[in-house]
Structure formats: structure tokens, C-alpha cells
Amino acid sequence: MSAAPSPSAAPPERPGKAMEWFSGQLFRALAPRLPRVEMPRPPRALEPYELLTIPRKGRGGSLGGTWFPAANAGSGEVRGAVLMMPPWMEWGRSYFHRRGRIVALREAGYHVLTADFSGFGASSPPQGFFDRDVADALAELRRRGAGLPLHFWGVSSGGHWAHPVLSREEGVLGAFFEDVSPHLIEWSRNTQPLGLPFYKIFQHVTRSSYRFMDMRRHAPHLRVQAKAYVSGEDDRGVRPDDTRALARLAGGECLIVEGADHLGSIRTANQQIIDLALDTFRRGGGA
After folding, report:
1. Cα–Cα dist 129/20, whole Å
2. Is the pTM of this model over 0.85?
3. pLDDT in tens, the chain (287 residues)
4. I want to staple 243 with a disulfide (CB 3.0 to 4.6 A). Which of 7, 172, 231, 277 is the partner?
């Protein structure tokens, strides 16, 4: 595990273009293998919605996305707009079709944008690290939610890759992170220890990339008014101390859900998590 960074230190710089390309290839080779599937349309309960093609800046290609207008959009009483980025699962942004997150946000007056990472669904193949996808999706949120308070909700990889973006870009007022590992190579070590020799190769051969992927180094610099982190007590990949460390470094709240494993907190403490997210966005202000 990396030593805790000094909060006064600047967030790590992005590795050079060649190193990012090489590291990205190696990282994806070490990541869990997932089949590429066609994203299912949202269920009728989430109508109305709009399927989107989100351009990728400077890389060509696009990301798949879905726009869910706030329930009171027609009245003009909209509280803000929220970008939701999913975990590393083959079903991508459709992960959010269940468990009530989108419904709760819309009923509270928020527009919602969900987006797939590169390589998932209709999105173009990956190029570089996945924080670039978060930045592109956030640019789409700014465009569609112009003049509104903007917020972020990320789960697992979705929240992990948001840290380099939110540590450098202004304008997001509230951020909610579920089951976010401080370092995805550490997550792999915790869950797949047989791959340890390969993780050590990544750590020592791609030092600048390994440092860039350490979200403990980005967390103290999040340019967000209100932050909250949640994870499960029994999560082998994201241990409770990992979540507490990120929350402490970011100056945010922390919730550890008793008896929950990875991605299980939303099942075990559904309403508690949704309430904490809504409270985080309210504390972020702007409306």
C-alpha cells in the first residue's frame, strides 16, 4: 500500500502520452475480463429518457449515454444535474436502472446523465486512462445542465476515475462515491492475489502511471464543496480503512455499511445511501 500523501503536495501529473498508452494496455490486460454486450434500454418506469452519443474530446469516437430529465423539468423547478458513472461491469450504465438512485434523484429535482466507459456498450474502444471518459461525460453534463448546479455520483471504477478530473476541474458542487478503491491495482491485489507478480510489474515498470492512479494523491485536491464516501464492511477489494482514508483526505463524510460486500451496500442500506447522496448534493449548495 502506498504511503499517505501530504495534503499540501500537488496531485500527480498525467504520465506522458507513450507511457499512458502502454500503461492503459497493461492495465486492461490485468483487469477483469468482461463480455461486450449491447446496453439494454431503460425500463418503462424510467421514461422519459433520451439516448445520447457523447463525443470524446481529442481522441475521436464517442461514449454511450442516457439523459433522464428531472420529474419536475416542465415546471422549471429543477435543483441541478447529476452525472452517474458505473462500476466495471459488462452492463455499464444500465447498472443504474435498478436500486432507485435515478428515481430518487429525478423526484428530488435533478436531471441525471449516465454514461458508459470506453469499451462498454456502444462506446468506442479505450484510449488512455478512463478519467478522460469522466471528463467527456462531465462536459456533456455542463452543456445540458448549463446554469444549473452540477453534481457527481460514481460507483467503484466510476468513482475512482473521477478523482483526477474533480481534483483539477471546477464547477461540481457535490460528489458521492460508492465502493471506490484508492488504487485499482491494490483492489486487484486484495481480490486476486495470484496475480501479485503482474501487479508488481505494473507498479515498478510504470511508476508514473501507478502514482497517477493513486486516488489518495488526488483526494485532498477535490474542487468540490461536499463529498461523501460509502463502502461495505465485508468488501475484500475496498476495505473500510481504504474508504475512511479517502474520506479523511478529501474532507468528506464516510459511511461503512455493516455486512455488505462489494457493490452490496446499495442493497443492504438502500434508503440510507440514497438519503446520504441527496444530503451531500444539498450541502454542496447552488440551489
Report:
1. 7
2. yes
3. 444 555 557 899 999 999 999 999 999 998 888 888 888 999 999 999 999 999 999 999 999 999 999 997 766 689 999 999 999 999 999 999 999 999 999 999 999 999 999 999 989 999 999 999 999 999 999 999 999 999 999 999 999 999 999 999 999 999 999 999 999 999 999 999 888 999 999 999 999 999 999 999 999 999 999 999 999 999 999 999 999 999 999 999 999 999 999 999 999 999 999 999 999 999 998 66
4. 231
Q: How far apart are CA 187 and CA 231, in angstroms?
A: 13
**Hey, what's the cell of 178?**
460508492
In angstroms, the CA 28 to CA 33 distance is 8
Question: Helical H runs in the chain?
Answer: 17-30, 101-107, 131-144, 157-160, 163-166, 184-191, 196-205, 207-212, 240-250, 265-268, 270-284
Q: Is the dihedral of CA 220, 148, 276, 49 positive or negative?
A: negative
Report residue 70 as a C-alpha cell: 428531472
d(CA 206, CA 111): 39
In sequence order, the 6+-apart residues with CB closer than 8 A to the CB of 206 are 15, 19, 22, 23, 26
**Are the C-beta atoms of residues 114 and 66 closer than 8 Å to each other?**
yes
CA angle 114, 120, 124 (to 5 degrees): 100
Q: If we measure between CA atoms, which residue out of 67, 56, 28, 22 comes closest to residue 135? A: 56
Answer for the pair 111, 78: CB distance below 8 angstroms, yes or no: yes
